């Protein structure tokens, strides 16, 4: 692992965190216009990602920080469908603005932040199954971005009456609000389409994983 990769990871995290911090986005839009903000944000995010990819490639052959357990790879394969389902369900569901969230429905009855939780699960599963320095930095950065999003959105929710009510009705921990009686499980609101979409995305990733990353997730079978 090199200093360049650590710096690139910090830049990538900042490219996600800074523009989304409360007050920053509206201020930039007021100053630059929505089109200008979108263009600047897109350019900055792209450059940060390209910088990280370059640093990641340069760090090839980084030292092994720990040896993954024998059950690490099978655990990734077993639980990644859940990560894909959470992300697909979030992308295809409307949550509203953190200061004026929609009434909890579908996947939001199960967890308040399905997309960020799916990304966090993705990152943590892969950290424990890799062990080399550069991939620990990669997935550690993913985890940091997901955690930041959850903490930031929770802070924003606390600022409005509607947001505080939404926090009371939902939970970050999956099914906690349902078990506490604050929500009910409504699988029909999630729908078969999202379930099948998540599984299809997972199957697609399994198929292209060896081509994109040089590793077959099913090598242990």
TrEMBL record:
Keyword field contains Membrane: yes
Membrane topology: Multi-pass membrane protein
Predominant cellular place of this UniProt entry's protein: membrane
InterPro entries according to UniProt: NnrU_dom
Membrane-crossing segments per the record: 6-24, 36-56, 68-89, 110-129, 135-151, 192-215
Entry keyword Membrane: yes
Pfam families per the UniProt record, alphabetical: NnrU
The protein, known as: Membrane protein
Subcellular localization: Membrane
Entry keywords, A to Z: Membrane, Transmembrane, Transmembrane helix
Organism of provenance: Azospirillum rugosum
Domain NnrU as annotated: residue spans: 7-217
């Amino acid at each position: 692992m090199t200093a360049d990769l650590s710096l690139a990871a910090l830049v990538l995290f900042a490219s996600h965190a800074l523009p989304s911090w409360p007050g920053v986005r509206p201020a930039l839009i007021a100053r630059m216009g929505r089109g200008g903000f979108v263009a600047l944000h897109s350019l900055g995010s792209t450059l940060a990602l390209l910088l990280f990819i370059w640093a990641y490639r340069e760090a090839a052959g980084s030292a092994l920080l720990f040896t993954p357990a024998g059950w690490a790879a099978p655990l990734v394969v077993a639980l990644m469908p859940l990560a894909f389902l959470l992300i697909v369900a979030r992308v295809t569901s409307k949550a509203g603005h953190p200061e004026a969230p929609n009434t909890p429905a579908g996947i939001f009855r199960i967890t308040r932040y399905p997309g960020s939780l799916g990304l966090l699960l993705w990152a943590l599963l892969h950290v424990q199954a890799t062990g080399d320095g550069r991939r620990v930095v990669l997935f550690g950065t993913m985890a940091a971005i997901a955690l930041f999003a959850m903490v930031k959105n929770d802070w924003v929710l606390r600022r409005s009456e509607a947001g505080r009510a939404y926090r009371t009705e939902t939970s970050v921990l999956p099914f906690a609000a349902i078990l506490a009686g604050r929500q009910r499980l409504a699988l029909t609101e999630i729908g078969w389409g999202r379930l099948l979409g998540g599984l299809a995305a997972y199957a697609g990733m399994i198929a292209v994983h060896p081509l994109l990353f040089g590793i077959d997730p099913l090598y242990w079978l």
